[in-house]
């Protein structure tokens, strides 16, 4: 991610209430009970890869463990649904429904995306939606599905650094992402965070 649209670091490291795009710093010291999202990108032979996972530092609060697992589970459910002919609204709907059933909220200002020769391509793959709406997934399309979910409300804001996105209520957030290849008989995970 170094220099992508001016981003100043190689990896996005978001801690606790930081949703995405956290900037690593020497004075950002992790402590037991923190949760940390690591968002990594790679360019290989002209193609982009993008994945993220959230992990706990030492012993973490049970509700934060559930938050992290819910982000991963929401991805898995959406991944299984991502087939040719399915619309992006179907993907977003299934993520939102699952996350809200678990008592959390989905971030609406940021979304998954198509990916290939550019990091962010069409279609946008939101974490909320209505069934039957949005762009149609096509066979051999590569997309990044990335549930970003909050312990509290879905509201977020961007910090003064112009990058770090935090929850408005300062409650914790978890992020999970992988790139997938949309295939007729069951899609394939291309990255494995």
General form: globular
Main sheet makeup:
5 strands, antiparallel
Strand sequence of the main sheet, in spatial order? 7-6-8-13-14
Q: What is the string of helix and strand elements?
A: EEEEHHEEEEEEEEEE
Based on secondary structure, the structural category is: alpha+beta
**Low-confidence runs of at least 5 consecutive residues:** none
Distance between the termini: 16 Å
Approximately what portion of the residues adopt beta-strand conformation? 25-35%
* Discrete helix count: 2
- Which quaternary structure do these chains form? single chain
Which percent range fits the helix content?
10-25%
What would you report as the Rg, rounded to the nearest angstrom? 16 Å
Description:
The protein is an alpha+beta fold and 193 residues long. The protein is built from 2 helices and 14 strands; from the N terminus they run E-E-E-E-H-H-E-E-E-E-E-E-E-E-E-E. The chain has helices spanning 62-81, 88-101; strands at 12-15, 18-20, 35-44, 47-56, 105-106, 112-114, 121-125, 142-145, 148-150, 156-158, 165-167, 173-175, 178-181, 188-189. A 5-stranded antiparallel beta sheet has the order 7-6-8-13-14. A hairpin with a 6-residue loop joins strand 6 (112-114) and strand 7. It is globular.
